[in-house]
Amino acid sequence: MTKQIMTSPTEKQKMPKEKDDQIAVDESEGWPQSRFLRACYRQRTDATPIWLMRQAGRYMQEYRQLRQSYGILDIIKTPELASEVTMQPVEAFNLDAAIIFADILPPLEGMGLSLEFVKGEGPVIHNPIRSADDIQRLRTPRPEESLSFTLEAIRLVRQELDSRGIPLIGFSGAPFTLACYAIEGGSSRNYVQAKSMMMGEPEHWHQLMNKFSEVVGHYLLAQAQAGAQVLQVFDSWVGALSPADYRDRVLPYTKQAIEIASRAGVPIIHFGTNTNGMLELIRDAGGDVIGVDWRIDLDVAWKRLGSEVAIQGNLDPVALFAPWPELKKRAQRILDLAGGQPGHIFNLGHGILPTTPVDNVRRLVDFVHEYTTNRVP
């Protein structure tokens, strides 16, 4: 039997009334059976759940073989291939969640930007935003039109995952991170073009960020409606900002996007890197779970965030290259800092790196479960 997720009597008031926005999952005594979903709602679990950002990717031989025949955008835009890649780490490891194989940048294409992944260089935007006219020309299409391939991949993956009882995560880049790519034309060290617009052209910045918040929010909502049971917002470059700039020039737009996505009634994870100076602001922007990187102790971060949110993190991805005894010690320390408190989701502080040893990934996943099984704080 399937029912709408309910986290508490008061949560019912927050759930969507529209039938299309409701996500059905298995429940046990009113709570999700999945330990990952339970942790998102800060409920007790039989063991700490674990999934890993970028868990499907170049460190896996199966993925590298596929990339010999297909480019990354080809895989993302072919639902059957995206579904296959999503399932690769699920088949290989005892993970508690899958995340749809996609990228944060395809939404830019639907807005009218020309995106290419260049070997050895990464993503390149061939017509970056540099003027008010550029902003005016940006479209805000419905995700069902511009990103239908990812929505279809979600539907396909759910067919594979439901029999295993493993939830699926959908995701999007946050408005600020997408704006940085769109303005800079690709990756950047100092974000001079983007921050110059933010500081020197506030009206144009407002117009741009309004468009991005609309696109991000509706894209996330559409993913949930297609079957994603959790949503994650990636604000990968937000650590380049001062707390004041984040509060005044970015937080309102991230909050707007999250509010749109929250109509789906599924948990939302809000993650950024280098956010130690603004953790409380990240929390205030929204999200049921706040992801933190390895630059802060997990217990310190959770104390600052407060007990009203769950926490995700926060192993340094480079630790996966260490000898197993060292990796185990570092993972155990994070679990000890969490203290078995409900609401901790073990993850890395950023994505898995391309040459990560597969055996260490497997041993880490198994260790997190074994060390925390039936652990009571």
The profile of the biggest β sheet is:
7 strands, parallel
Q: Assign the CATH architecture.
A: Alpha-Beta Barrel
Order of helices and strands: EEEHHHHEHEEHHHEHHHEHEHEHEHEH
Q: Helix content range of the residues, please?
A: 40-55%
Number of strands: 12
| SS content category | alpha/beta
Question: What proportion strand?
Answer: 5-15%
Shape: globular
Measure the end-to-end span: 32 Å
- Domain count, please report it: 1
Radius of gyration: 20 Å
Poorly predicted regions: 1-29
Number of helices: 16
Task: From the 3D structure, determine the CATH topology.
Answer: TIM Barrel
Which whole number gives the mean pLDDT? 91
Q: In what order do the strands lie side by side in the largest sheet?
A: 4-7-8-9-10-11-12
Q: Determine and state the CATH class.
A: Alpha Beta
